[in-house]
User: Fold UDP-N-acetylmuramoylalanine--D-glutamate ligase from Paenimyroides tangerinum.
Amino acid sequence: MKLVVLGGGESGVGTAILGKQKGFEVFLSDAGSIKEHYKNVLNGQGIEWEENQHSVDRILQADVVMKSPGIPDKVQIVKDLLSKGVKVISEIEFAFPFAKNISIGITGSNGKTTTTLLTHHVLKQAGLDIGIAGNIGDSYAQQIAENPDRAYVLELSSFQLDGIENYKPHIAIITNLSPDHLDRYNYEYQNYIDAKFRITMNQTEEDYLIYDADDVEIQKWLKNNKTKAQLVPFSLTQVLEQGAFLKDNNIIAMIKEENVTIPTNEIAIEGKHNVKNAMAATLVAQMMRVRKQTIRESLSNFDGVPHRLEKVNRVNKVLYINDSKATNVNATYFALESVNAPTIWIVGGVDKGNDYDELMSFVNEKVKAIICLGLDNEKIKQAFSSVVDVMLETASMKDAVSLASKMAEQGDTVLLSPCCASFDLFKSYEDRGDQFKEEVNKL
Assistant:
């Protein structure tokens, strides 16, 4: 069997390793350059690879192709493969049949990284043999090659879910839905929603789907579509018979007569959205039979996620917050909702089809100045110039932080929450966040 891997990053190299272990004839091809570290791994495993090109004839001879999540379906080589009837799948789909234990799959527009890390943290503290993969950490495929008996918590993007056929998580979580990556879905929000719900398409009556019952789009999808999974909702506004809800500032999580109570003020990470993330993690822990005391302790000693509402420093009584991971409007909505001080907001980057209207009330109420950090800031300027008096443009993090520190007064917050992808000025959202932290710590 010939396996061709498109893309020489974490998921591509992991798939190549697993494929080789399982007896496939493996060839890896990347249209760009491959990092030195990955080349060394491939050479060490005796896996053939190429970079800065695609040998089309050879690729088209594949029996199965694993496409890295960053490669869109519109790319010519993918179109050619599909028209020839070659199966093109994601790393998750390729690795899943070789896993000997369950996976917990987590998706959503926002909160999925926090929920994934939090769920993994709780289960690990309970002493379970549990790995973490997907959009985060080491590749799922490589970990299955090394530890097939482990259970895994997987953070799954819509792109990874686009490439599944048989993958089935025992427990699936959909944290929420808001327009994101619409450039990859022909600017059709419904296509993106349907991609997220692929997480439950193969689930059976023995599996569970945990979801946000306050989310209009999730409710709508569940009304109009069927899943066989047992539905387990969580909510901040309704009292539920099964699932998790709020009562007198306590999370009450109920699964089949078993309930656990957690005071919200004991949760280490702040904000309403993190109460929801904690609800989802608690429900998983209950299904995995974790002791109540362990769940409570784990939620109270969890550190949070780098680049997500990360308090960097206080300088001259001004708080600097790094929320570089906020690459869409909904994520920035949570950030602005959670700050309680006059705010200088650093925003901008590559717009993925954003509608800024839902931020208006927070911007009007809390934002005293906007610093645009992107190559094209027109849309942001048009959206907010009527409600914010001070709007400045900059094309480097150094200038953005310097301007913010000059404008900020005691008691203010400087918030980097870009709403956009980072690729115009930075390598990644991590690079953008790291540069922000570096500049703040120089002040």
Observations:
- DSSP finds 17 helices and 20 strands in the chain.
- The mean pLDDT is 93.
- The chain has three domains: 2-89, 94-300, 310-442.
- The two ends are 58 Å apart (CA to CA).
